[in-house]
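Tokens in:
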């Protein structure tokens, strides 16, 4: 539904040259269509569609987005938490006159200014070019200090350099730690963890969370819980699973005896090197990646869980050889521990810095996950 050349040029320039975070996109009144609806006096509504450009370069509608309206105090106020799967939304009960609307999904947002709301009518601001643009993302990667872990070049997890290679707008900071207390000290020195996403990849396992004192684990739980409640998100992969099990044991169920971490690890491992065709279960991820199947490589020994916890959901799954035999493994799991706030993502995947992996499915999947957080 393309409107006029002016909007097309505006949005094209935004996509080519980039839009600053929070930049207002004016929708001229002449381009806003209205529809008569039943509505309370002195109120009206807005409907529209928002989209993203996926990894294949196609424009697709974006669902699961937060839609907000700027109130009289100059603060964006949440109106509804979701648009439908194709990105269409409808808001009623808005004050008559000019309105500013913001739609957000993870690190992607679009602000529309000069939306004219008329009494008893719906203003349609649907634009095929009205796509979301990512905001800058501040990321902290927490790694173990022990270089003994890097005993094989392709066994290490290089998520820091991989994140920097994805073309994301933002900053990747790396924190090397010997023990979990180092992470707590970092958080206390900052006062507030001013990051959007914390990463605890495979290489963080050298400190083995279950060997830390209960006091230390409790302090880490407090720091991470505060971070999540305030809207930050956490990405945990492969051998970082033990930290997730210690702090949020309800998130994922593992094979073996969960009270015995050595047994749990032994019973939850991917068996040998293999390439699998992983099925994308999450509809929004399928749209974002422009495909249904991901080709994922495993080195052998990665940690693949049994099933998501009761409040978690599977995003990607695959049939693979496992210490339990041939199983259907949930390879990417999402968990939101608090009713409002950020999310936790666990993946069984490994991240390797190599030219051969630059455009790999695992890297493209990582990029879309980060943009969604």
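Residues out:
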């Amino acid at each position: 539904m393309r409107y006029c050349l002016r909007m097309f040029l505006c949005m094209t320039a935004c996509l080519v040259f980039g839009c600053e975070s929070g930049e207002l996109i004016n929708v001229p009144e002449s381009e806003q269509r209205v529809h008569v609806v039943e509505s309370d006096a002195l109120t009206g509504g807005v409907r529209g569609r928002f989209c993203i450009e996926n990894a294949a370069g196609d424009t697709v509608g974006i669902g699961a987005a937060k839609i907000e309206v700027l109130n009289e105090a100059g603060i964006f106020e949440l109106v509804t938490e979701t648009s439908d799967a194709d990105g269409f939304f409808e808001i009623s009960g808005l004050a008559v006159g000019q309105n500013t609307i913001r739609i957000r999904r993870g690190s992607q947002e679009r602000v529309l200014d000069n939306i004219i709301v008329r009494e008893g009518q719906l203003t349609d601001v649907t634009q095929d070019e009205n796509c979301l643009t990512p905001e800058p993302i501040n990321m902290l990667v927490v790694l173990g200090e022990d270089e003994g872990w890097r005993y094989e070049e392709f066994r290490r997890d290089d998520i820091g350099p991989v994140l920097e290679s994805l073309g994301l707008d933002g900053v990747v900071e790396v924190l090397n730690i010997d023990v979990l207390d180092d992470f707590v000290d970092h958080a206390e020195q900052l006062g507030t963890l001013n990051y959007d996403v914390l990463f605890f990849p495979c290489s963080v396992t050298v400190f083995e969370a279950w060997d830390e004192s209960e006091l230390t684990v409790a302090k880490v739980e407090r720091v991470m819980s505060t971070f999540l409640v305030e809207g930050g998100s956490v990405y945990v992969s492969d051998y970082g699973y033990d930290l997730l099990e210690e702090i949020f044991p309800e998130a994922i169920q593992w094979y073996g005896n969960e009270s015995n971490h050595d047994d749990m690890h032994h019973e939850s491992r991917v068996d040998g090197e293999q390439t699998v065709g992983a099925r994308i279960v999450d509809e929004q991820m399928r749209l974002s990646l422009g495909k249904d199947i991901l080709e994922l490589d495993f080195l052998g020994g990665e940690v693949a869980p049994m099933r998501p916890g009761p409040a978690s959901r599977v995003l990607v799954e695959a049939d693979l050889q496992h210490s339990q035999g041939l199983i259907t493994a949930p390879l990417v799991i999402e968990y939101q521990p608090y009713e409002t706030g950020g999310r936790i993502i666990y993946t069984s995947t490994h991240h390797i810095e190599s030219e051969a992996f630059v455009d790999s499915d695992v890297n493209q999947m990582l990029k879309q996950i980060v943009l969604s957080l």
